[in-house]
Amino acid sequence: MPRNVTINLRMIISSIIFFIIMPLVIYLGVTVLEDRKYYFVSIVLVLLACVPFFLRFERRRPQPREILTIAVMAAISVAGRCLFVVTPAIKPVTAITAITGISLGAEAGFITGATTALVSNFFFGQGPWTPFQMFTWGMIGFIAGLLGKTGIMQRKILLALFGVFAGLFFSFGMDIWGAISTAGMFSKEAFIAAIASALPFTIIYAVSNVIFLLLLAKPIGEKLERLKQKYGILQ
């Protein structure tokens, strides 16, 4: 099969998993399991996130350094969240996840974001909100990876705009959880109330995303690019 056909097929499968199957898994976890099996839902999300990643290796063995690189980025993201524990609205997680996606690809970005949420919540507390955090942070990395392929994320103004978008995306995604947890089911009124109450958090979070992206994108991105060029990982 030609390489471009393989890449397109992989991206189609990735998009179906991330945009359709994962939201369906979360929905079933909320409605059918009634949030009682959030560990199970979280594990399912992690396994689903790995499927597109391993599609990269259908014709060759994965190099340990490729998996290690993503694991290190996730560990840095977890450490960053823990370091800023006293400032709930200021976290470098989104920036590190987005930079990983831009440099290493959409699937790597998703795995970094989802893994960060799951692992860091062993320190911050696991709960029914964990799958929502995994999905929203993961999707930020996935979208950043898709945009990174176009080259537009090299422009600082567009990188800053993505930071704002990511802040809104994460906050609104968690507001869905807030609406469900408050009302027992999703309602427009509860969702609007959750957005309004979280507005200060959303603004601060969006601004901090922009700052972290502008500060970290170049130094981390350059190191990841050197790894890609030197070892030929995730090409």
Describe this structure in words.
With 235 residues, this protein is an all-alpha fold. It has a single domain (64-231), classed as Arp2/3 complex 21 kDa subunit ARPC3 (Orthogonal Bundle). Helix content is 80%, strand content 0%. The protein is built from nine helices and no strands. The protein has helices at residues 3-31, 38-55, 64-83, 93-104, 106-124, 130-148, 156-183, 188-197, 199-231. It is globular. The mean pLDDT is 83.
Helical content (DSSP H or I, runs of 4+)? over 70%
Number of helices: 9
User: Structural class, judged by helices and strands?
Assistant: mainly alpha
Low-confidence stretches: none
How many strand units? 0
The overall average pLDDT, rounded, is: 83
Write down the Rg.
17 Å
CATH topology category name: Arp2/3 complex 21 kDa subunit ARPC3
Note the main sheet. Answer: none
Distance between the termini: 17 Å
- Proper CATH architecture: Orthogonal Bundle
Order of helices and strands: HHHHHHHHH
Shape annotation: globular
Any idea of the CATH class?
Mainly Alpha
Strand content: under 5%
Which terms would index this structure?
235 residues, mainly alpha, Arp2/3 complex 21 kDa subunit ARPC3, globular
